């Protein structure tokens, strides 16, 4: 899909439930968590060479890469921990015991940041030590989920499914600011940043759209409409692409039950997208 929403292309099909995604642009690969299949997979950016990397992780959700050291970090909501492995899936180790959802890495700062099921934004050293509560909120009215970092300016960005907001804070959790207050019926989910252009992109799995705005929340633009439950999102800024996960619209009733099917789709952008396409019958 281009910035005008044209040229949507499916790059991987037959996936059960891809959730969050991460890119190794230099390595030419895309990684994703498959929540229901309990695995982490990867493929080439054109969708070829799908490979299982980690299997048996009860409920993998968020994922982030450290391509410098060749490692990946992911959250597992059911196992209550953050884990780490090599990019080929070997050397799996536990990092932090928590109830984590989205995750983002500050490699130079040696920190990992994550949203937590108990309505908090937290961080710890990459080795799992020195966990800190950065932003705490009422779990009855908030549910932070997607998370992204602007390392250069020292800002955390996150989406909130319950309050329907996108917020920002300093790396130490101070200066919390609401950038986007949401719509009455909206669920901002995945978020990705173009730090060079000062733009943030996010998915909304209730309105079935992808949005873009300036870092201060101004200039909100609808990029794509008519999707089905888009979730994770990632940018290849140099190639002008957005990758995101989204579902196929439900199909008319079929006399013979068929399994639910998902697919990863690649949008051509100054953002290219990966979409998971779900088929319900």
Question: Helix and strand layout, with pairings?
Answer:
Blueprint: E1 8-15, E2 18-24, E3 29-34, E4 39-44, E5 51-55, E6 60-66, E7 71-76, E8 81-86, E9 93-97, E10 100-106, E11 111-116, E12 120-125, E13 132-136, E14 144-150, E15 155-160, E16 165-170, E17 177-180, E18 188-194, E19 199-204, E20 209-214, E21 221-224, E22 233-236, E23 241-244, E24 262-267, E25 274-276
Antiparallel strand pairs: 1-24, 2-3, 3-4, 4-5, 6-7, 7-8, 8-9, 10-11, 11-12, 12-13, 14-15, 15-16, 16-17, 18-19, 19-20, 20-21, 22-23, 23-24, 24-25
Short description:
By secondary structure, this protein is mostly beta strands. The protein contains no helices and 25 strands.
Describe this structure in words.
- The protein has 281 residues and is mostly beta strands.
- The chain contains no helices and 25 strands.
- It has strands at residues 8-15, 18-24, 29-34, 39-44, 51-55, 60-66, 71-76, 81-86, 93-97, 100-106, 111-116, 120-125, 132-136, 144-150, 155-160, 165-170, 177-180, 188-194, 199-204, 209-214, 221-224, 233-236, 241-244, 262-267, 274-276.
- Strands 1, 22, 23, 24 and 25 form a 5-stranded antiparallel sheet that branches.
- The radius of gyration is 17 Å and the shape is globular.
What features would you highlight for this structure?
281 residues, mainly beta, five-stranded antiparallel beta sheet, four-stranded antiparallel beta sheet, 25 strands, globular
What's the alpha carbon Rg, rounded to whole Å? 17 Å
**Main beta sheet: strand number and arrangement?**
5 strands, antiparallel
Average pLDDT over all residues:
87
Q: Low-confidence segments, ≥5 residues, pLDDT <50?
A: 254-263, 267-281
What percent of residues adopt helix (DSSP H or I)? Answer: under 10%
């Amino acid at each position: 899909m281009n910035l005008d929403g044209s040229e949507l292309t499916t790059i991987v099909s037959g996936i059960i439930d891809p959730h969050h995604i991460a890119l190794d642009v230099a390595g030419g690969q895309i990684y994703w968590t498959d929540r229901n299949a309990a695995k982490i997979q990867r493929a080439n950016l054109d969708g070829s060479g799908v490979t299982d990397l980690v299997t048996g992780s009860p409920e993998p959700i968020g994922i982030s890469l450290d391509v410098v050291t060749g490692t990946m970090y992911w959250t597992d909501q059911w196992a209550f921990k953050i884990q780490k492995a090599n990019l080929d899936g070997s050397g799996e180790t536990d990092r932090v015991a928590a109830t984590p959802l989205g995750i983002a890495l500050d490699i130079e700062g040696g920190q990992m940041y994550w949203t937590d099921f108990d309505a908090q934004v937290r961080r710890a050293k990459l080795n799992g030590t020195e966990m800190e509560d950065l932003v705490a909120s009422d779990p009855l009215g908030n549910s932070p989920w997607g998370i992204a970092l602007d390392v250069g300016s020292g800002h955390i960005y996150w989406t909130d499914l319950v309050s329907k907001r996108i917020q920002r804070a300093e790396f130490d959790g101070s200066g919390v600011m609401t950038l986007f207050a949401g719509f009455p019926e909206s669920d901002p989910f995945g978020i990705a940043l173009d730090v060079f252009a000062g733009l943030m992109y996010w998915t909304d799995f209730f309105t079935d759209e992808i949005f873009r705005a300036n870092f201060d929340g101004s200039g909100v633009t609808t990029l794509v409409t008519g999707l089905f439950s888009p979730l994770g999102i990632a940018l290849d800024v140099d190639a002008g692409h957005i990758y995101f996960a989204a579902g196929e619209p439900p199909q008319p009733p079929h006399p013979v039950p068929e399994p639910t099917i998902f697919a990863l789709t690649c949008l051509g952008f100054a953002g290219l997208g990966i979409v998971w396409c779900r088929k319900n019958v």
